[in-house]
């Protein structure tokens, strides 16, 4: 007689537990890409330096084409194999005839702790193996607590802590919950009027990509022209590869706001902790290692970093340089950016770098200059000038194309040997601009400065500049003089807030020039 | 009699198991929430209202509310229901762990199941837990021993779970009920870690001078709890930020609008109810569409601002700026909650490509917007200080030249500004008529022909 009110009481207690069993929409998994286009953007804050190979700081805009079969009604469409650095707030799904109800990005991951979390207050099978006989015993259990601080299960005999008895025991779950996935996954809730197969486009921005332009400039024997070859180095720092992709890169700087880190799933690694287990003999440390359920192995075999070089111009001495690859098409204007379309399909491999040709121009005339900015002498010692190769980025100068920012390596061939002269960073250069390759100081051309007494020292300062040339050729010098010269020179160029003094130092000769600086206005 | 009692016990156990699969379908976690309504503010603060059916008996009841936000602010909890008056509220966040289970079992009797390592035979005995300090000291019959002192396997089985320890943080309320029965009650509380922002996708068509703009609400739930099938209302505004939610410094608004939209309002805030119930899962970022405008007029322009006496030896890129309005006539026709606008353009093959993004603050309807998306590759400005002449003890005349170059195959107009004029700088001479937009700043609209270059000169007379 007492049993009936007890059962009713339990039913009333359990009623709110059973009531909200709401119907989850069916899940459609899309894991295959029919087509993919990857457009890579430079790291906005990176100057002309190298790519961070571990986690490239730029980003990519990825357009994926997938075919999915949708049932009639509402269903959850899960996109697997998206880029690791996916920014879910940027995802756009196109091609769904009845639109998207909502987009979700779930960080709940399939892991030992994630399983305990998903099966909390639910039934699992506890399997115990007898060490002596090998006999396996299974029993039903309900997870009552976990995964933080250990797992407590309820069996028919009472409540026990998992992994604390010294017996081999493990939990068996009937199935993987649908909302746990191996990787953070993008899913959309879609509504379809009828069951149908559709082609959808998934567009999103993803971090962990970068690209850089690199130039190889080969000076002709007479030194008057260079052959310029540009390379695009594209890096993918994520774990997702994109096979047979249309690769594009975008030059220019665009604005990118900070993306806050995404929410993390709460369960970390599962540690089965027990009550204190000091014993008389081993106090205070007892020898039983906690049983850990295979965490860590999943991450360990992530692909080792490898670099894929599909094309590279080898700096082979003595051998003739291989013919440059055909020049790719010039960039498109995309708004105020430059859009380079790689003319063939490539694989954008995970944790890899790739190089493709950007441009190739022969016989670009260059002017060789020695450059410096006149500064107050700290001591009397002469200082070397910077070797500058100047090209004009226009048709008459053999170029006339957009030059994305990057590092240029300048080579010269001396007695059949191809030698590196130096490296120079250049910024984004539009058509029509002057391009200066500053490739380091050269000891052959130096300048010294002396301050001479001036009769009107309150208002004037006298500078004496001595330029020396140890080369057997004339040296064209371009020096910026950042003060008011008295009298003001005629027909000199102003650049920034300085005068540009151009002078030729004769072969193995010297030039001494005095300037009078006006300290105050009149 | 003992037989019947044990049968009853096992029936109850089966009933308990039998109830599990109903809630255990399709990975949905058992959830004790009732009819949930969530109001989410921009600052990550949310109001949760949870209507549950409570079975109460007349008099004092202790009611537990599992599945509230793990980040609940207990001081904001209110429970209302007919005939219920609150005696006390507790928020227990002491989590049930094996360690605590043993600690709370001190003084109680538990079951030990010993396994013979040679034969696998099991032997059961009852033991009283005397202490749990470093190791577990047990009394079994008249002997005292330490749990697993010999290292042999021993299962410790507890008869019950201690009260007040939970698998999840749990709210419990003690109420006085006027009469027994099932009472609908509304639990409401504030929780942090549940917020939203807006994300906009703007597809710009330069040839047509138009944008298509889609707005998405991005909800982020880091509260530790899933809100199942919730009615969701979003409030554009920050109740703690002051200034009506216009807290962000970085914005794109040139002039604030004066038009009112059709959206619901709450005080000075706009409301965005989601059209249907949604499940906001823990550790989830969810997006729901709220704006879709096609063909609003927009223009691409260029801006360059020079600081006082600023000069450069190389040309510097002008900023690319997208201008549009949020007004009803000739604009987006809606107010825009704070968020990020991402701008896309179609390439020569018609595929959309990303060309830059920027943040906006809460923007009323009717506002003029200029959104800086990046730097122009082909439109550059090189400022040069041509001369600087002293005209007296505290007077200088500065001649500036701004070379604006355009490598694009079409003409452009660059909005070129000079900052830092203070109030007392006079413009003696200028090659193009500028507009003194403020005492500190003058702006010139410089038309530059296709593949061309234009010099603008200006002479400033300064005193200090």
Structural class determined from secondary elements of chain B? mainly beta
* Rg measurement of chain A, Å: 35 Å
* Principal-axis shape of chain B: elongated
Distance between the termini of chain A: 116 Å
Kindly estimate the percentage of residues of chain B that lie in beta strands according to DSSP: over 45%
What class, by secondary structure content of chain A?
mainly beta
So how many helices of chain A?
3
Task: Report on the architecture of this protein.
The complex is a heterodimer of chains A (522) and B (464). With 522 residues, chain A is mainly beta. Chain A folds into three domains: 25-105 and 183-212 and 231-274 and 290-357, no CATH class; 120-172; 366-395 and 431-518, Immunoglobulin-like, CATH 2.60.40. Chain A is built from three helices and 30 strands. Chain A has helices at residues 3-18, 112-118, 297-300, and strands at 27-30, 35-41, 58-70, 73-79, 85-86, 92-94, 100-106, 123-129, 136-145, 152-155, 158-161, 169-172, 185-192, 196-219, 225-236, 242-251, 332-334, 337-341, 346-348, 352-365, 367-373, 383-392, 406-414, 417-426, 434-452, 460-469, 475-481, 493-495, 498-505, 510-518. In chain A, strands 2, 3, 5, 6, 14, 15, 16, 17, 18, 19, 20, 23 and 24 form a 13-stranded mixed β-sheet that branches. Mean pLDDT of chain A is 80; it is low at 1-21 and 283-320. By secondary structure, chain B is mainly β. Chain B has a domain at 98-157. In chain B, strands 16, 21, 22, 25, 26, 27, 28, 29, 30 and 31 form a ten-stranded mixed β-sheet that branches. In chain B, strands 1, 2, 4, 12, 15, 17, 18 and 19 form an eight-stranded mixed β-sheet that branches. A five-stranded antiparallel β-sheet of chain B has the order 9-8-7-6-10, with no helix packed on it. Chain B starts with a helix and ends with a strand. Mean pLDDT of chain B is 82; it is low at 1-29 and 241-249.
């Amino acid at each position: 007689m007492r049993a009936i009110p007890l059962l009713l009481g339990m039913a009333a207690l359990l009623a709110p537990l059973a009531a909200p069993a709401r119907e989850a929409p069916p899940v459609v998994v899309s894991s295959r890409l029919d087509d993919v286009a990857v457009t890579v953007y430079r790291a906005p804050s990176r100057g002309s330096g190298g790519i961070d190979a571990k986690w490239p700081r730029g980003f990519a805009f990825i357009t994926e084409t997938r075919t999915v079969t949708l049932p009639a009604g509402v269903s959850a469409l899960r996109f697997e194999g998206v880029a690791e650095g996916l920014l879910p707030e940027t995802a756009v799904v196109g091609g769904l005839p009845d639109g998207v109800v909502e987009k979700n990005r779930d960080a709940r991951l399939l892991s030992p702790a994630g399983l305990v979390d998903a099966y909390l207050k639910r039934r699992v099978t506890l399997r115990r193996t007898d060490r002596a006989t090998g006999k396996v015993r299974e029993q039903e259990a309900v997870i009552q607590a976990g995964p933080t601080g250990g797992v407590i299960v309820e069996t028919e005999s009472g409540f026990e802590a998992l992994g604390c008895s010294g017996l081999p025991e493990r939990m068996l779950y009937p199935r993987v919950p649908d909302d746990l996935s191996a990787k953070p996954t993008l899913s959309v809730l879609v509504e379809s009027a009828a069951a149908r197969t559709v082609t959808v486009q998934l567009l999103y921005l993803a971090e962990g990509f970068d690209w850089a332009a690199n130039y190889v400039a080969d000076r002709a024997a007479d030194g008057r022209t260079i052959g310029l070859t540009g390379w695009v180095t594209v890096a993918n720092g994520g774990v997702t590869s994109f096979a047979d992709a249309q690769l594009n890169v975008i030059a220019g700087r665009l604005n990118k706001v900070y993306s806050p880190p995404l929410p993390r799933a709460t369960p970390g690694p599962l540690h089965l902790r027990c009550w204190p287990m000091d014993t008389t003999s081993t106090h205070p440390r007892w020898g039983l290692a906690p049983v850990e359920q295979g965490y860590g192995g999943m991450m360990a075999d992530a692909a080792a970093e490898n670099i894929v070089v599909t094309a590279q111009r080898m700096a082979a001495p003595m051998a003739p340089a291989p013919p440059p690859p055909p020049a790719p098409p010039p960039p498109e204007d995309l708004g105020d950016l430059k859009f380079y379309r790689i003319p063939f399909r490539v694989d954008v491999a995970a944790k890899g770098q790739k190089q493709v040709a950007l441009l190739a121009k022969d016989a670009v005339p260059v002017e060789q200059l020695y450059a410096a900015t006149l500064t107050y002498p700290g001591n009397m010692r002469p200082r070397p000038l910077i070797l500058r190769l100047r090209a004009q980025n226009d048709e008459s100068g053999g170029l006339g194309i957009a030059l994305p920012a990057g590092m240029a390596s300048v080579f010269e061939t001396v007695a059949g040997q191809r030698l590196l002269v130096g490296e120079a960073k250049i910024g984004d250069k539009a058509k029509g601009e002057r391009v200066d390759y500053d490739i380091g100081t050269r000891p052959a051309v130096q300048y010294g400065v002396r301050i001479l007494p001036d009769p009107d020292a309150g208002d004037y300062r006298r500078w004496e500049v001595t330029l020396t040339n140890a080369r057997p050729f004339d040296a064209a010098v371009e020096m910026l003089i950042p003060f008011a010269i008295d009298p003001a020179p005629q027909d000199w160029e102003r650049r920034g807030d300085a005068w540009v003094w151009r002078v030729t130092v004769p072969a193995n000769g010297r030039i001494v020039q005095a300037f009078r600086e006006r300290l105050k206005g009149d | 009699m003992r037989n019947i009692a044990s049968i009853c016990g096992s029936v109850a156990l089966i009933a308990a198991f039998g109830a599990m699969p109903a809630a255990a379908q399709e990975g949905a976690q058992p959830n004790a929430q009732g009819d949930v309504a969530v109001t989410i503010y921009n600052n990550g603060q949310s109001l949760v209202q949870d209507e549950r059916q409570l079975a109460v008996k007349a008099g004092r009841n202790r009611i537990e509310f599992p599945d509230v936000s793990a980040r609940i602010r207990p001081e904001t909890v209110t429970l209302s229901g007919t005939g219920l008056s609150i005696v006390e509220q507790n928020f227990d966040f002491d989590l049930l762990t094996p360690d605590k289970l043993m600690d709370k079992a001190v003084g109680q009797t538990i079951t030990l199941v010993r396994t013979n390592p040679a034969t696998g035979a099991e032997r059961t005995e009852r033991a009283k837990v005397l202490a749990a300090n470093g190791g577990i000291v047990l009394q079994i019959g008249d002997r005292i021993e330490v749990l697993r002192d010999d290292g042999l396997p021993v299962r410790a089985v507890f008869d019950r779970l201690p009260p007040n320890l939970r698998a999840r943080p749990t709210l419990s309320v003690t109420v006085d009920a006027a009469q027994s029965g099932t009472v609908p009650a509304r639990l409401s509380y504030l929780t942090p870690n549940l917020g939203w922002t807006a994300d906009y996708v703007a597809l710009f068509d330069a040839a047509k001078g138009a944008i298509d703009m889609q707005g998405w609400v991005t909800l982020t739930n880091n509260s530790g709890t899933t809100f199942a099938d919730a009615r969701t209302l979003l409030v554009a505004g920050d109740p703690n930020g002051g200034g009506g939610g216009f807290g962000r410094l970085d914005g794109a608004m040139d002039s604030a609008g004066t038009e009112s939209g059709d959206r619901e309002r709450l005080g000075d805030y706009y409301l965005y109810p989601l059209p249907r119930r949604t499940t906001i899962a823990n550790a989830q970022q969810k997006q729901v569409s709220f704006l879709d405008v096609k063909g609003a007029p927009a223009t691409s322009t260029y801006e360059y601002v020079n600081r006082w006496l600023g000069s450069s030896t190389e040309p510097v890129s002008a900023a690319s700026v997208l201008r549009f309005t949020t007004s009803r006539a000739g604009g987006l026709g809606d107010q825009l909650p704070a968020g990020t606008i991402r701008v896309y353009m179609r390439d020569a093959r018609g595929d959309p490509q990303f060309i830059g993004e920027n943040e906006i603050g809460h923007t009323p309807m009717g506002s003029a917007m200029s959104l800086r998306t990046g730097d122009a590759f082909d439109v550059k400005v090189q400022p040069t200080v041509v001369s600087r002449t002293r005209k007296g003890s505290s007077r200088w005349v500065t001649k500036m030249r701004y070379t604006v170059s355009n490598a694009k195959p079409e003409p452009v107009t660059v909005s070129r500004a000079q900052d830092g004029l203070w109030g007392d700088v006079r413009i003696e001479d200028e090659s193009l008529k500028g507009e003194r937009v403020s005492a500190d700043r003058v702006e010139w609209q410089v038309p530059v022909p296709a593949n061309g270059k234009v010099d603008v000169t200006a002479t400033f007379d300064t005193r200090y």
